[in-house]
C-alpha cells in the first residue's frame, strides 16, 4: 500500500495532536509506503514559513519533521498535468498520487474529497485513513 499525504495533513500532524498525527504514527508502525513529491515538500515549507505559523511551530521543529519524513518516504517524480480538481492548486497533489501509484490520498481538502476516487486512488479523510490502517 502506498499513501500520499496532502500538505494539510502534514501541517496538521506537525502542529496538533489529532487524527493526522495518529495517521502518520500508524503509517510508521504498519509500514505502508509514503509517497511524496517536491511540490508537496515545497508547499509544506512555504506554509510553515509564514509568520502566522510561528505561534504553532518553530523553524527547528519544521526542519526536524522534514528530516524524519523525507527519508521515510518515496520521492515521486510528477510528470502528469491534471485538470481534474476545481481548485487548480490541488491538481499537483492528485498528480503526485497518480504518478506515485498511490492506493490512497489522505486529505482534508473538500475539493479533493468530493472526488472520492480518481482512477484507482481512493481519496479519504485522515479519520478514514486511520481506520484503514488500523484494520
Give a quick summary of the entry:
With 135 residues, this protein is an alpha/beta fold.
Kindly describe this structure.
The protein is of the alpha/beta class and 135 residues long. The protein has a single domain, classed as Rossmann fold (3-Layer(aba) Sandwich). Helix content is 50%, strand content 16%. It is built from 7 helices and 6 strands, in the order E-H-H-E-H-H-E-H-E-H-E-E-H. It has helices at residues 7-15, 19-30, 38-48, 59-69, 91-99, 110-115, 126-134, and strands at 2-5, 33-37, 73-76, 104-106, 117-118, 121-124. The chain has a 6-stranded mixed β-sheet with strand order 3-2-1-4-6-5. Strand 5 (117-118) and strand 6 (121-124) form a beta hairpin. Helix 1 (7-15) packs across helix 2, helix 1 (7-15) packs across helix 3 and helix 2 (19-30) packs parallel to helix 7. It is globular, with a radius of gyration of 14 Å. The two termini are 13 Å apart. The mean pLDDT is 94.
Q: What is the topology?
A:
Blueprint: E1 2-5, H1 7-15, H2 19-30, E2 33-37, H3 38-48, H4 59-69, E3 73-76, H5 91-99, E4 104-106, H6 110-115, E5 117-118, E6 121-124, H7 126-134
Parallel strand pairs: 1-2, 1-4, 2-3, 4-6
Antiparallel strand pairs: 5-6
Helix pairs in contact: 1-2, 1-3, 2-7
Q: Count of DSSP E strands?
A: 6
Low-confidence stretches: none
Work out the helicity level: 40-55%
Oligomer: single chain
CATH-derived architecture:
3-Layer(aba) Sandwich
* Class per helix and strand makeup: alpha/beta
CATH level 1 name: Alpha Beta
Rg over CA atoms, rounded to whole Å, is 14 Å
Return the domain count.
Answer: 1
The CA-CA distance between the termini, in Å, is 13 Å
Strand order of the largest sheet: 3-2-1-4-6-5
Overall 3D geometry? globular
Largest sheet: 6 strands, mixed
- Compute the number of helices: 7
The helix/strand series, from N terminus to C terminus, equals EHHEHHEHEHEEH
Amino acid at each position: 500500500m502506498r499513501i500520499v499525504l496532502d500538505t494539510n495533513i502534514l501541517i496538521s500532524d506537525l502542529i496538533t495532536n489529532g487524527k493526522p498525527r495518529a495517521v502518520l504514527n500508524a503509517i510508521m508502525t504498519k509500514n505502508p509506503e509514503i509517497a511524496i513529491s517536491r511540490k508537496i515538500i515545497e508547499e509544506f515549507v512555504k506554509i510553515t514559513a509564514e509568520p502566522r505559523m510561528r505561534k504553532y511551530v518553530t523553524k527547528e521543529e519544521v526542519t526536524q519533521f522534514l528530516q524524519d519524513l523525507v527519508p521515510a518516504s518515496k520521492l515521486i517524480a510528477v510528470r502528469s498535468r491534471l485538470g481534474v480538481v476545481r481548485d487548480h492548486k490541488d491538481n499537483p497533489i492528485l498528480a503526485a498520487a497518480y504518478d506515485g501509484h498511490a492506493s490512497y490520498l489522505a486529505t482534508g481538502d473538500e475539493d479533493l474529497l468530493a472526488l472520492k476516487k480518481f482512477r484507482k486512488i481512493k481519496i479519504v479523510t485522515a479519520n478514514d485513513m486511520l481506520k484503514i490502517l488500523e484494520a
